[in-house]
Amino acid sequence: MAGRGAACHPLAMANDDAPLSQPTPESQSPRRNRVRNQTRRDSILRGLRAGGLLATAMAGAWAWWQAWRNPGMLGPHGSGLDPLSLSFILLLAAATVWAFYACIVEPADSPRPRRTLLLAALLVLIPSTIAVVLLGRYWWQRSQAIGLPYPVLSQLAVVSAGIGVTVTAGLLLHLERGSRTPSKQLLRRRPTRTTTAVAVLTIAVATAALALPANTFQPRSTQVTATEAEPIPEILGNHVLWQHVFNGDETDVRGIISGTAGPIAITNHGAQGLDPHTGETTWSYTRPAHTSVFNRMYDTSCQGAEQAACHAVLTPDRSTLIVRYDAGPSNALLVALDTMTGEVRFEHMYHFVGDNRFSWDRGPNVQVTDNVLVIDQEILSITDGSHMGSLPRTDLPDCPGDSSCSNYDLDSEWVFSPFFQGGHSTLILGATCRYYDASGFETWCELILAPDSDPAATMNVSGIVPSDSSIATRGPTVVDGWTVRYRDPEVAGQELDREQKQGRLKEDALANLDLPIEVVSLDALSGTDTDQQPVPLAYPGRPMANRATRTLGISGTENVGERYQHPVLSDVFNPVDAQVYPIEELTEQATGLGYLDTLAVTQPNDVRGTGLSGWKSLDVLNPDGSVALHLDYEDITDPADIAAADGTLAYYHDGYLVPAPGVVALVYDRAVLQDNDDGANNFTARQTVVVGLG
């Protein structure tokens, strides 16, 4: 072979006897440079091909896992060709071009023109690049819509980029390979340092691209150190201590609730604690995403004082607050916050799969005790969000006799406790409630209870008195772990059956029958706290389904409705001291938490009918309609706000009181009222004002 090679050399053929001349550096340098450049280019292309292939596999596996955990996230979100389908078509076009060159175009004996290589590369690279841009833009749009990183789409964008890099590099290697170089020989070549470095760099870039979306739309939070909680004031003060104004922008509030250290504002994007002495923000938690109601069945009743309670879940001891963010059509992000310090206890992304996927008009069934959070069947520790097990499936009690029943269980559309609470250590796994007449008022419930430490140890408790409220909040009512029960469930059940058979239950049963009732602790019923004794009530009635109060109101037998802007009550049970207070006694003494919960804030009678421009004062009413406190415009409006307003500051909603540790907060809505030439009123600059009374 050496002799043949020497004979074919031009200098050798001129003088066969002359010794073989060595190529000069000048003659060999261009060839060596071409070979060196070709080798380096091949190494880079092989590195890109290997790295792109591994990145595609890695991102594809992650995308598959995300799609499995988030069913429905890739569904169409509008009419027409969505970016996901268009990206698939573009990738299919790129794969078709690659298959044409790889399977039909044979390797050439001489180097191909650069324009041929460039054309082939562009025919593959351009469609895949457009697919990456479309998927990335689609991910950004969907993420902005929910305020959270949208799953699957960002991983698919990396998959598209990996496919584009892989097929482009593979195509160029194929077209630059000589016809006499077997492809198997290329595959058997050991990777060079350049190949390895490029492959590692490609995988690193893909890994960074996969990790980047998780770092977007991050929450912002501030925390404070824990302090000793102050008691809730016993009386309603008549002095304004401070004001905190929430403008109608990103801090627009859903409402105010009471925590363990003072008032808490539930905002459109999170929550923040207020100092009971100054009204300044102490701790806060906010996200770009919007907070949402825990069950949309409550939308009609989420007004005024109860609006915040629909957007927040409090444990019975009020130490933990849970807010919810919608994260797409099949996900919900739940965030648990310490109400004293604002510390994030945990964040939990709940995925709805199978029968548990919620429709637009409902969310996951959520229930809390002081120890656990239950989401549908999943049990999480309230401390750190760790998984503690699943609730057992239970069979609801049969509906006896000729009565009709409503069922409340894990699959029910109705969430049946205020603040979505169970007991302090007791879970409500289900309930069956009977109603005997066409009015639909339920008169008897049987609960399935279980300790939160052992959910399998279920027990049935009958004779629970349901709420007097509308269909949106009917069923058992629980406040601070207490509910109402017939004192003798067996006798009460027989009496209700007898009256029903005789057709005498034409109205609310408890308004016609003298059936003694008592307030009972769920923990005592489940056996987790045997020290809590039942507290008898003097008059028959129903528990009031008011999710904004800390006490349990019992409706009077006068009627089922409202008087002077709040329900008619006969008694109020205070869980703090486990005492029942008649409503007349509370009004006369004008003191205590039970009294504060009975007060209503409304427009004064002397300005009714004068239009919004004349509504410049508020009255706090006792249950009997008498005025407990009158607040003039100047009392609750900062002069600086009046001067800064481009128009008239007017109220447009009745307010409400929030008794909280250290302060009684008055909450009301106002806006700048501008008078037009045609006499119409326009609202601008809507605000929610929190006033500390002392």
From TrEMBL:
Please name the InterPro entries in this protein's record. Quinoprotein_ADH-like_sf (IPR011047)
Positions of region (Disordered): 1-38
* Biased composition annotated in UniProt, kind: Polar residues: 21-30
Domain of life here?
Answer: Bacteria
Q: List where the protein spans the membrane.
A: 44-65, 85-105, 117-140, 152-173, 194-214
SUPFAM superfamilies in the cross-refs? Quinoprotein alcohol dehydrogenase-like (SSF50998)
Q: Which residues are in coiled coils?
A: none
Q: Give the keywords, sorted.
A: Membrane, Transmembrane, Transmembrane helix
Designated name of the protein: Uncharacterized protein
**What is the organism of origin for this protein?**
Actinomyces glycerinitolerans
Q: What is the lineage of its organism?
A: Bacteria, Bacillati, Actinomycetota, Actinomycetes, Actinomycetales
